[in-house]
Amino acid sequence: MQPTCVVAAYSADDYGRAAVEQGETIAREAGARLVVVNATRGDKLVDERYAHEDEIAALRERLVAEGLEVEIRHDVVPDVAEAVLDAARTCAADLVVVGVRHRTPVGKLLLGSVAQRVILDAPCPVLAVKPVKP
After folding, report:
1. Is residue 104 over pLDDT 70?
2. Structural domain that includes position 41
3. Burial (0-12, 13-18, 19+ Cβ within 10 Å), 18
4. Prediction pTM value
5. What secondary structure does DSSP assign to 18-50, as a single string?
6. Residue 96: which CATH number?
7. What is the mean pLDDT of residues 102-127?
8. Does residue 26 lie within any of the structural domains?
9. Would 52 be classed as within a structural domain?
């Protein structure tokens, strides 16, 4: 069965770019809609994973030029993982793509992980990717 909607959790770093690239590839091959979610809780003065408006505009332009049907959700939300999960539920996603990063055992204990919550709570399969190191 070909996907009709793919959700990519995007952060403005190599991990988020890897998720969007994989989501883009899958959506293009399947002729599916791509929903990109870049969200922040807004509890920091600067959230390095929240993309600047110019970066979002360039991403949208590139994806549309590739011929994809794309929606980009770029919001301040109470819960980033819930924003990704909501996008997946809203478009009846067939797949969610998330970038995963290495965390220390203490980091896993003390800090919640958006990717972990999405993997465990998504209403569809989740593909976890990481950037390819040269």
Report:
1. no
2. 5-129
3. buried
4. 0.89
5. HHHHHHHHHHHHHT-EEEEEEEE-S-SS--TTS
6. 3.40.50.620
7. 78
8. yes
9. yes
